[in-house]
Amino acid sequence: MNRRTDRHLANTLAQPGITADFNARDWEALIGQARTSDLLGQLAEVLRDAGDAVSVPEPVRFHLDAALRIAALHRQSLQLELAVIASALAVLGEPVVLLKGGAYAVAGLRAGRSRLFGDIDLMVAKASLDPAEGALFRRGWRPTHLNAYDQRYYRQWMHELPPIEHFTRGTVIDLHHTIVPPTSGHIPDPARLIADARPVQVAHCPDIFRVLSPVDMVMHSACHLFYGELQKGLRDLYDLHCLIGEFSVEEGFWAHLLPQARAHQLEYPVLLALRFARRVFGTAVPEAIAEECDRRLGRRWTGALTDHLIDASMYALHPSSDSTWRRARRHILYARSHWLRMPLHLLIPHLAYKAFIHDEARVG
Amino acid sequence: MSGAPLSSLSRSALHDRLVSPDGLRLHIGRFVTSIRSRHAQVAEGLATLYADYRLADDDRFCDYAVEVGRGDGLRKFVRPQSLFRFEGMQPFKPLPGDQAFAMLEWGLNWVFTNHAQHYLIIHAAVLERDGQGLILAAPPGSGKSTLCAGLALRGWRLLSDELAMVGLEDGLLLPLPRPVSLKNRSIDIVRALPGDPVIGPMAHDTAKGTVAHLKPPRTSVEEALTRVQPRWVVLPKFEAGSECAVQPMGRARMFMSLVSNAFNYPRLGVTGFQAMGRLVEACDGYTARYGSLDQIVPALESICSRPA
User: Fold this and answer.
1) What is the pLDDT of residue B306?
2) Domain spans of chain A?
3) Which of B88, B267, B271 sits opposite A318 (nearest CB)?
4) What is the ipTM of this complex?
5) What is the model's pTM?
6) Cα-to-chain-centroid distance, residue A103
């Protein structure tokens, strides 16, 4: 780790102008951090937008250009997959909500520009899960987790079905019925999320796709980050920075954000999102909301510790920004994510199963 | 590409660079790669096989930083391993300590294949004569590297023994000259060839058997920025005791054979299809079955000397 370079990625994404003073070693740290954080495409967009204000050395340009090319190809393949998915799911006669990366891309949001993602995340009403999965099976998607324990883990406890993978193209779909695991004890109202979702046009697709409303999208992104394993902490927080920046001009966004999150029992991750986005990227948050945020987080007795742990996940896993202590804190966060997802009477048997039985079961 | 060659460093200066935070910085083709390692075998392999590669200037941006470590904790001292790291990531499981140099070569292949997306990348050896490129595309075990070594030692310019990198815009072959990877019996076959072959450290009992590398000719390393127009595609197939049979191959078959040997063809979508189409249009294709280098080398040289 190097104290001088360890924040280069976050700082450059927020203010590309700082690269004016960069030497070759600074650029190496920046590109390396972006590569290990899955943010190379987003960095390339930011530097491209900065235009003549920023002078990028020619050898660095090569890597940014490579990332933009990959992202453009990724986008083409997303369009093709969505066309297949739409024609499969049109029979449901119900809206299908695109979540996360897919949603950012089709809604044309800044967060989605040159952002790569592995899985296509979809949400339908719980009653439509089985018909939706069946319709995708008929178009060539196959279950990836065949063992009975994994199937039950997802179907009984999780907010999504086991991932399904296309048998030739390898595309993976996660089919959700809500946005956080029901076992976490937070029960948002999926019917309302779907009702509030906004239509989005996707080329060559029947009109079935929706994306979450701005407030819900921020809320879901925050849940995904702060109730998850924080393995891609910086990337996910950058999503939030872009979403908040773009939505903050929408009528009623700030007025509804915290009350609506509270109504869905998901205020805590939204508070953390606002705090860390401000701290890491300098995201603009109205004074009154920022104060409310600090007040409510300050009331939690674990606040300072959680804060310190989460801070570690906001650095790239790159030699220029990583340290033993930051790695240790990330391991604790990983354990924390399981703790948040399930109560102990489910978690202990689950971890025991994964540790002692699972490998054997996979062979059969 | 300025800078003194690696051979200008004393062994202790080479060691110092390999263990320094910035690493040993070499021009490998169009990329600057930083290499760090405490394995003596890595230093030995680099001194032997990379002697002609240029050291990068201090203020030049380094494209890829790799490390061959000895393992974590006690592993550093007790039966050290070879642990490949790229930007702090570990894409492979560790290998035994005495395979450190082979690990570096495999790791670099992985880095170049996965990160240079301006090219259609085909698993093939590439050589040049009279400004025209020969692509030897074949799955492992078909004798491609041995044949490539044989041609390089006869004065063909080596572009690569592993990766044909076809420019997506200009269709030209980008050189990425590196040591030629040889396996098992082919090590002795190449060692016995005229042209003063230099062979680096041997790695025994690897997943591919015994592995060693042939030093690339100096002119190949020095001309690494000169791109080449592709002209011939040959699918070699070594069969012990076989007669030599070189047959022309249709464009459709050439296309599909290259696709099956391409690393990033599906990922490139339409762009990849167009680049592959342009490559196939520009080349004459042949299949070549042979039982010894003595047969195939003259046969290929006769094909490749015909006027275009």
Assistant:
1) 65
2) 8-345
3) B88
4) 0.89
5) 0.89
6) 11
